[in-house]
Amino acid sequence: MKRFLESLVVFYQKCISPLFPPHCRYYPTCSNYMLTAIKKHGCILGTIMGIARILRCQPLVRGGYDPVPDKFTIFRNRRAEKEYRHKMHLD
């Protein structure tokens, strides 16, 4: 099941995504986030995290750096974003 889900995301990345202009508000992109979440948290939790991320990727959200957290959550990884902004002197 895990490989099937990963192959669906890779198919999207290679065949569907190039047809549209890039517009993801986050880094890493939503599809890369989904792949990492599935690898890190398994099929069910990883898919839930990926779907939650896709739902957050909309014009009313600031976006920015949002890596997959080590613990399952459907919310944004604010601690990693804070560390990144501090490291890059963006605060």
Automatic annotation (TrEMBL):
<dbReference type="Pfam" id="PF01809">
    <property type="entry name" value="YidD"/>
</dbReference>
<keyword id="KW-0472">Membrane</keyword>
<keyword id="KW-1003">Cell membrane</keyword>
<comment type="similarity">
    <text>Belongs to the UPF0161 family.</text>
</comment>
<comment type="function">
    <text>Could be involved in insertion of integral membrane proteins into the membrane.</text>
</comment>
<dbReference type="InterPro" id="IPR002696">
    <property type="entry name" value="Membr_insert_effic_factor_YidD"/>
</dbReference>
<dbReference type="GO" id="GO:0005886">
    <property type="term" value="C:plasma membrane"/>
</dbReference>
<protein>
    <recommendedName>
        <fullName>Putative membrane protein insertion efficiency factor</fullName>
    </recommendedName>
</protein>
